[in-house]
Design goal:
Elements lengths: L3 E5 L4 H8 L8 E5 L9 H11 L3 E4 L7 H6 L1 H21 L4 E7 L26 H8 L1 H12 L3 E6 L1 E3 L12 H12 L6 E4 L5 E6 H14 L6 E2 L5 E3 H12 L6 E4 L14 H7 L6 H15 L9
Parallel strand pairs: 1-2, 1-3, 3-4, 4-5, 5-9, 6-8, 7-11
Antiparallel strand pairs: 8-10
Helix pairs in contact: 1-8, 2-4, 4-5, 4-6, 7-9, 9-11
Length: 314
């Protein structure tokens, strides 16, 4: 049990979900911070901030990320900020005697042609997609960083790999939203109209998405029960095609499926990039909320909050 857990990126989707689990851990103080509280790019400033706060554990979910356009236009920024933030957290944990630290990796770091299901061992195999290479290499660097700090300083730090996350406090901005959040926003905006709703590609690619509360529960399970250098896939492996996901969202919102038009002149993306989470499941016995149930919860929250100023990132 930890007395105080520092959660970075607490205004983001995963960080917010971790903070929401605080009632499940009575006796533990959860302290969530965003970029306005501490500049994680500043290693010295981060060390001083953590020294003042004195947490027992750090759950580092903060990251700089963006859509394809942002990734292609700002590769140096993505590489620099993500590497600096991870090193700042590691140095803060090392110099302040933090008992346990979690660093977050992403399945977006793997090579586009990685064998499926993707295993943690494939992290350094092959070249990531050109549109996302700098973010991918920044995330890959987390794994040797963990090994190095555990070896030289005996630092109790672990690395958890998330796949696609969706949930109530996702980023719904058009240029930044991932597929599920993007579809929810567009469908809600167009559900009272009669025009076709256009979706790029033929809808065949399969994707894994994990409900944010499940990802947060997995992180906190690992915080309390896992302490090895081996990174772990902790996301759900339930897969759905883009088409089936769009149909689910349409059904939940009462939109006629015939309004959905899949534009096959546009790129569909990688057909499948499923992961193997057996290392995590064999240790934890973890179960996930069904994807459809998570969608229903997310859409209900979005409808209830979208018109409240500042509540939803639109």
């Amino acid at each position: 049990m930890f007395n105080k857990i520092l959660v970075t990126g607490a205004t983001g989707l995963l960080g917010h979900a971790v903070m929401a689990l605080a009632p499940d851990y009575p006796g533990t103080e959860f302290v969530g911070i965003g970029s306005n509280d501490c500049d994680l790019n500043n290693i010295g400033g981060t060390v001083a901030f953590v020294r003042k706060l004195r947490p027992d554990a750090i759950v580092h979910t903060a990251a700089l990320a963006g859509g394809i356009q942002y990734s292609m236009e700002h590769p140096a920024t993505l590489l620099r900020d993500n590497v600096l933030q991870n090193l700042a957290v590691l140095e803060a944990a090392r110099t302040n005697g933090v008992k346990k630290t979690i660093l977050t990796l992403s399945t977006g770091m793997y090579a586009a042609d990685a064998p499926v299901p993707i295993k943690e061992d494939y992290i350094h195999d092959g070249t990531p997609h050109e549109s996302n290479y700098s973010y991918a290499f920044a995330k890959r660097l987390v794994e040797p960083s963990i090994r190095a700090y555990r070896t030289e300083y005996n630092l109790p730090v672990i690395g958890l790999v998330s796949n696609g996350i969706f949930g109530e406090f996702a980023n719904y901005r058009p240029a930044e939203a991932v597929m599920v959040a993007s579809l929810i926003r567009r469908f809600v905006e167009q559900r009272e109209k009669a025009d076709p709703i256009v979706i790029w590609g033929d809808g065949s690619p399969l994707r894994e998405y994990t409900y944010s509360h499940d990802m947060a529960r997995a992180f906190l399970w690992c915080l309390h029960h896992y302490d090895e250098a081996q990174i772990l896939h902790v996301g759900s492996t339930e897969e759905h095609s883009v088409r089936d996901t769009a149909w689910m969202i349409a059904d939940i919102l009462g939109i006629d499926r015939t309004r959905l038009h899949f534009d096959t002149s546009k790129p569909a993306g990688i057909l499948r990039k499923g992961t193997d989470n057996s290392r995590f499941i064999s240790r934890s016995g973890f179960t996930y909320i069904p994807f459809r149930e998570g969608l229903e919860r997310t859409i209900a929250w979005y409808l209830a909050n979208k018109d409240i100023p500042g509540r939803v990132r639109l």
